[in-house]
Design goal:
mainly alpha; binds iron/sulfur cluster
Length: 175
């Protein structure tokens, strides 16, 4: 007899389209509840504020232009097709709860399926995608700028982890 996947396998280790479907189902079920959950709303607001701080630091270091240029060169960029596997159902759910219409933008395998013409579809990326630690960035920025970037990234990752943990607790509680 075929065994049903565990909740953990479904959320974190299923195929990307399955994770996406699961996130939409959870969103339909939990959004009304979460919009009245003061603790969730606080965690969500904190995450949004820290995302703005990181975005400002990245803009100050002109990373948008650097990464776009890098991605346009042969073999450049960080968003390979394998990186889509770094997404998980709860991270996708966090984006749906923030009003992002998450969908697969390409499936020819040339890049991550969530990479569109305007860049990554996510407001809140998978944790592994927030690893701005390549030689291109190091070469063009001072140690102080790198420290600011690492600090802003670390605070965002920590807030993301707390929000994911809380949502996992809610999902487990609600069955
Ligand atoms: S983080 Fe570094 S390797 Fe990745 S796209 Fe930006 S410049 Fe290129
Ligand atoms: S940053 Fe976005 S587009 Fe790039 S690999 Fe991560 S999820 Fe995919």
């Amino acid at each position: 007899m075929k065994q049903e996947p565990s909740l953990r396998d479904l959320l974190f280790f299923s195929e990307v389209p399955t994770r996406l479907d699961a996130a939409y189902r959870l969103h339909r079920r939990l959004e009304p509840l979460l919009m009245r959950d003061f603790y969730f709303l606080q965690l969500q607001e904190n995450l949004q504020n820290l995302r703005s701080v990181l975005a400002a630091q990245m803009a100050q270091m002109k990373l948008g232009a650097l990464c776009s240029h890098c991605a346009s060169t042969a073999g450049g960029g960080c968003c390979s097709s394998e990186m889509a596997g770094e997404t998980d159902t709860i991270q996708i759910l966090i984006n749906l709860l923030a009003g992002i219409e998450v969908r697969i933008l390409q499936s020819d395998g040339s890049a991550c399926c969530f990479l569109g013409a305007e860049g990554c579809i996510f407001a809140f990326k998978p944790m592994f995608c927030l690893n701005y630690n390549c030689s291109h960035i190091h070469r063009r920025n001072t140690r102080e700028q790198m420290t600011e970037l690492e600090g802003a990234t670390g605070r965002l990752l920590s807030a993301h982890y707390h929000l994911e943990s809380y949502l996992l607790e809610v999902i487990t509680r609600k069955g």
